[in-house]
From TrEMBL:
Keywords associated with the record: Cell membrane, Kinase, Membrane, Phosphotransferase system, Sugar transport, Transferase, Transmembrane, Transmembrane helix, Transport
All residue ranges annotated as the PTS EIIB type-1 domain in the record: 5-87
PROSITE patterns listed in its UniProt record: PTS_EIIB_TYPE_1, PTS_EIIB_TYPE_1_CYS, PTS_EIIC_TYPE_1
One Pfam family from the record: PTS_EIIB
GO terms, molecular function: kinase activity; protein-N(PI)-phosphohistidine-sugar phosphotransferase activity; protein-phosphocysteine-trehalose phosphotransferase system transporter activity
InterPro entries given in the database record: Glu_permease_IIB, PTrfase_EIIB_Cys, PTS_EIIC, PTS_EIIC_1, PTS_IIB_1, PTS_Sugar-Specific_Components
GO BP term (any one): phosphoenolpyruvate-dependent sugar phosphotransferase system
Domain of life: Bacteria
Localisation: Cell membrane
Any one Gene Ontology cellular component term annotated for this protein: plasma membrane
Membrane topology reported for the UniProt record: Multi-pass membrane protein
Descriptive protein name: PTS system beta-glucosides-specific IIC component
Amino acid sequence: MSSNKKLAEQILKNVGGKENISNFLHCATRLRFNLIDFDKVNKDEIESLSGVWGTNVNSGQLQVIIGQTVTEVYDEICVLAGLEKNEGIDEKLDDLKAKKKFSINALFDVLSSCFNPIIPAFAGAGILKGLLTLLTTYGIMGNETGLYLMLNAASDATFYFLPFLLAVTAAKKFKTDMTMAVVLAGIYMYPTIIAGAGSSVEIFGIHVTLVKYSSTVIPILLSVWIMSYVYRFIYAHTVSFLRVVVVPIVTLLVMAPLSLMILGPLGYYAGIGVGECFKWLFNVAPWLGGLIDGATRPFVILTGMHMAMTPIKLGNLSTLGYDMLAPVDCVATMAAAGMCFGVFLRAKKAENKSSTFSAFISAFIGITEPALYGVAFRFKKPLLACIIGGGISGAFVAMMQAKAITYAMPAIISLPAYTGSIPVMLIGLAISFVVSAGCAYALGLDENIKKDQRAAEAEKKAINF
């Protein structure tokens, strides 16, 4: 018998057996038991076992500290007790009370975790969609050909079936069952639901207006978040041999009406409301909206709020057919490149010239972290140049009503996504680069400022020559 299996048997025996376990998880170093009756636990015996470093009780959870072999011991206990295996959780979840408190940083973290994995799909699909629009607009490709049909499907699939992609990433973030999360997305995207959008149906005597959930963001994120609590509660209060049937059935019975009657419509109309606010601002005072968005772009990225803008942009594209924020963000990104070029011309030290030129190339194609953390926030004065360049160019493209016709990365390589506004975008990009480069050169920099850890990490993302 292996040492891990022997340890697993002893731990299982001393926590009161499999009948005493309501939920069982592990993190990087600890086994985490939610138990029915703590009086059945023999902590002293567990702590005396070879391979156990100690025990801890936190928020009603028994934690057995194992160390590096925790995964192997966890797997053995799951086999012995007939429990479903789950992925390891973050040890930071120890502070459950702090975790329950809402904070804006927690919201940004959720959005970032859900959107970051699918950004490459957005980038590829967005550029492809823009290229197709260019080709059909100028008669190079007909929109009735088989080739167009294939490429259009490839470019639209990411956005149309976005609830499925977000269901997967949200399930990982909220530590819940991925298959059930995808099923929730399937409910939203069911053909009958999509086809009936705008009509009203009666559910439990309540009239509910169906909504077209393709390309939506907030409904599926809300649903998976709530489902994570529902699923966990049902799982913990169901005997192990019935879980495979009872947990998914009850989860669906709870989440299907909750999603279609409350969470889906709430998320859908909330997204429309935010989009309408930006539309109003860009209609009433477009230069002001562009100025604010463009000038604050460095701080938005610094705080992680740029990920919070992604669902707004996607909502604009879905409900309005265009997005007015992406053009501003694109020229503001070029401001970071211009800033780096100005600093490169002004710098005297070879090390600073090398790092700022690498940051310039990276920012030029849309990777701004080396520019912002390695140049702007490090040397401070160049940051003002980035703000001025982004603000002025942002006001210009907004005033000229530049629009994105599909989701696009804020970079010059995404120009096809701005079909119909490309001349305006080219002028805006030129303004952004020239103004920020000129201001950065004029403001100068203190080359004796040392790199902090964040600047050093950011430089690793830069393109080097």
